[in-house]
Amino acid sequence: MGRIYTLVGGCYVVGGLFAWPVGAVGLVDAGFGLIRQTRFGRHREEILVKEYEAGIALPKRIERRLKAKYFG
User: Directed axis angle between helix 20-39 and helix 2-15, to 10°?
Assistant: First the structure.
């Protein structure tokens, strides 16, 4: 999902070279996409899984997102 926001935002930024308001919207989308990629990336997931296996509790924001259907 983060890659999609970054890609779309990048397209808007390029379009902003011709129309400034479009570029501003693109910067917001691209920034949001980069934040999501950092927060929910595969590398971050691997770190959290290794920490969980070592006995460290998951962060509360991740625990809230877990649903019973993921474990059945």
Answer: 160
